[in-house]
Amino acid sequence: MIITRSPRSLDDPGLYQHYLDLVGDGDEFGATELAHALLDDGVPAQRIMVDLIGGTQARVGELWAANEWSVAREHAATAVNERVLAALAVGLSAPPRRGRITLACVDGEWHGLPARILGELLKMDGWRVDFLGASVPGPHLITHLHQTGPDAVALSCMIPTRLPRAHAAITACRAAGVPVIAGGRGMGPGGRYAERLGADAWAGSAEEAVARLGGDWPPPLAPEFPTEFLGDEEYSHLVRSRPQLIDTAMHRLAAVVPAVQHYDEQQLEATREDFGHIADFLAASLYLTEPHIFQDFTAWTAQVLAARRVPVSALRAGLRLVRDQLIDFPAATATLDLALADLPAS
């Protein structure tokens, strides 16, 4: 695609739509050309990365949730965004003068673009960055720390179901003597879960993380937060019984939702995955004793299903099938009851 008029700023909403159209069409060349044209016009690279690329990626997720884009199109657009970011970053890194950062996504966390954006901003600010990528197993992360001796670990967690693994990673990093700055939506409003999991600092955005790391770092070592409430008996039971819970729910579902009897293999597999998400978000809620984690998930799921013309009654039935198997666990049933009460009537 040839841009006939060089864009001058990010103030024009039409520019965001144009860029979204490019990545949605898989036009890597056009999207990269647009980003470079902005850079040539004097738009700071940080703004292009955070506002245009990051903002567009958030919009891509919204379009998938609204059933306007397929999973395939969402993945293709994400790949284009990653390539544009990489092309834009060429030659922008500053000489390392601050120290060394290990940057990683929590084990099981596959949303790597926000962390990639942070990595490029950190390099522009003079950090040497080891970006380990998405879904980094905890033992591999710790091995890397012992091999490289970084000044800090930046850990990204976008989905609350990964919080137990984030806790394990944070604990291991601190045991290795490396402070941790945590980020990502999965850390909760205001990053309140980050502190409870023992992180030394939290940042709500990539730019906030750069500012925090560029200030008085490392901060005074965070106190050890009492963790005896984490991973209690209910949480442990739910994690151990997850396969059986899903199998039983699937077996009973056809009796309460007759349409399931006519599902094809793809629909059945998607339904099984949905039960898995229910179990995982419920486990995260129990791990932190935070019912809102599960309530937010079920409210969002109801919207996603509605966009796909799946009635909320199906979600309600699924939650009750899970609840019926956990009647001996008061925290789990109370959390499910709160979520059920929050769902729309129809």
Name the shape in a single word. globular
Name the poorly predicted regions: 1-7
Write the H/E string, N to C: HHHHEHEHEHEHEHHHHHHH
Order of strands in the sheet with most strands: 2-1-3-4-5
Distance between the termini: 46 Å
CATH 2nd-level architecture of the largest domain: 3-Layer(aba) Sandwich
For the largest beta-sheet, the strand count, sense and barrel status come to: 5 strands, parallel
CATH class of the largest domain: Alpha Beta
Strand content: 5-15%
Please state the average pLDDT score.
92
Overall number of domains: 3
The CATH topology of the largest domain turns out to be Rossmann fold
Number of helices: 15
Specify the CATH homologous superfamily of the largest domain: Cobalamin-binding domain
Structural class: alpha/beta
The radius of gyration over CA amounts to 22 Å
Q: What is the strand tally? A: 5
Helix fraction bin: 55-70%
